[in-house]
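Worked example 3 (structure in, sequence out).
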């Protein structure tokens, strides 16, 4: 079974949803709460990164890489799912260097391909739990009358970086800085593209097949 993964794709492509489903199904730890944990703890780093993300900017590579390496040294032996990281070529190169030092390597780079129409539709109805970070859709999950997380009873709310103006900036960043990673991982022979426009369960069936190496 493949246990060292990165999930890539545009904002709203379903990376967070698939990462959560992978963790629940296969028990592979997901790294996405790292920045959120720093924010919730109220650390200077957490507050700084929260402001950066709210503007739609990317957190500096130095900060991200430091947090990622610390996390991998503590938890990486059980595998990992990177949700939306790396986002730039330098980040991808740094991750490869870290993994080389830890004498391990990526198994899969899964790219969730979605249309801009799908992105806008999902972002407009996206809700996130203030407590645990669970992400869902107001329409699909019918949380409009009871905006409470089904896992921890936390309050579900719109993310501050789901504003239309911020989304435009994030999509521009994705097109210029993240798209080049396709070639990087293709050359490593670990890139797999999946149609992310479909229902989450259908997408997860394809993701699961790659993790279980059913080819």
């Amino acid at each position: 079974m493949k246990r060292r993964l990165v999930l890539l794709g545009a904002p709203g492509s379903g990376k967070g949803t698939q990462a959560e489903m992978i963790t629940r199904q296969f028990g592979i730890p997901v790294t996405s709460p790292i920045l959120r944990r720093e924010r919730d703890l109220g650390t200077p780093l957490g507050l700084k990164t929260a402001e950066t993300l709210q503007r739609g900017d990317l957190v500096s590579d130095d900060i991200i890489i430091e947090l990622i390496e610390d996390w991998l040294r503590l938890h990486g032996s059980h595998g990992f799912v990177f949700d939306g990281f790396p986002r730039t070529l330098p980040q991808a190169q740094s991750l490869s260097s870290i993994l080389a030092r830890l004498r391990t390597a990526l198994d899969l780079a899964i790219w969730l391909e979605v249309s801009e129409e799908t992105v806008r539709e999902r972002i407009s109805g996206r809700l996130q739990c203030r407590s645990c970070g669970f992400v869902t859709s107001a329409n699909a999950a019918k949380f409009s009358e009871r905006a409470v997380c089904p896992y921890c009873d936390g309050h579900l709310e719109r993310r501050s970086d789901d504003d239309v103006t911020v989304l435009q900036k994030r999509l521009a960043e994705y097109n210029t800085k993240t798209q080049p990673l396709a070639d990087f991982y293709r050359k490593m022979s670990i890139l797999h593209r999946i149609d992310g426009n479909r229902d989450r369960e259908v997408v997860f069936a394809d993701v699961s097949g790659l993790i279980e190496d059913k080819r």
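Notes: Residues 4-114+164-211 form a domain with the Rossmann fold fold (CATH 3.40.50.300). Strands lie at 4-9, 80-83, 108-113, 126-129, 135-137, 156-157, 191-195.
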